[in-house]
Amino acid sequence: MEAKPVDAEQFKTGMRSLAGAVSIITSAHAGRRYGMTATAVCSASAEPPTVLICVNKLATTHGAIAKSKLFCVNVLRADDWELSTSFSGAQTGEGRFKSRDWAKLATGSPVLIDSLASFDCRVVNKLLHGTHTIFLGQVEQVLLGKKGKPLLYSEGQYAKLASLTLGEPLPEGLDYWGF
Length: 179
Ligand SMILES: Cc1cc2nc3c(=O)[nH]c(=O)nc-3n(C[C@H](O)[C@H](O)[C@H](O)COP(=O)(O)O)c2cc1C
Known about the structure:
By secondary structure, the protein is an alpha+beta fold. The chain has three helices and twelve strands, in the order αβββββαβαββββββ. The longest helix is centred in the middle third of the chain and has 10 residues, at about 80-90.
């Protein structure tokens, strides 16, 4: 079958089927706090501990990360979908931060109290690609919250896991982080 060039709409439709965990990426620059909702977040390496994020160049948080070379990934709980909405456009600037408590760790980026986990990072590499910049952040500090279900995003909607378990547990030491 002859392949046709992929247009952005086709790409986005396919990507909507890729369920993702929702985080809030924060940064701070020149005394101001910045933050945005993101699903393009993943573990890049365990040694050294490194997180990868993809940030649209038009997002206000992009400039803060590029200038400060700092960011924090705050992994959201299933109940936090309204916070996600605030950080994806329903609120702007400082208004995004007002409904919750925030702290600072090693880098000074805002850290969400009661996230599932927060990864406080210093940018060690970046790649400009199309509409986005891919930042690699070395994790300088981790805040672990109490265990809970993550907030997911799938087919343009927020979702949560019906259950945290499916199938048999993987044998001891053979789960993903065992490698
Ligand atoms: C569920 C969800 C996931 C998102 N993931 C990303 C992402 O990974 N990268 C990105 O650049 N924007 C992502 N966005 C869009 C930004 O959150 C949105 O553009 C944000 O408002 C930009 O900030 P600004 O309004 O301060 O410019 C996502 C939005 C939603 C609702």
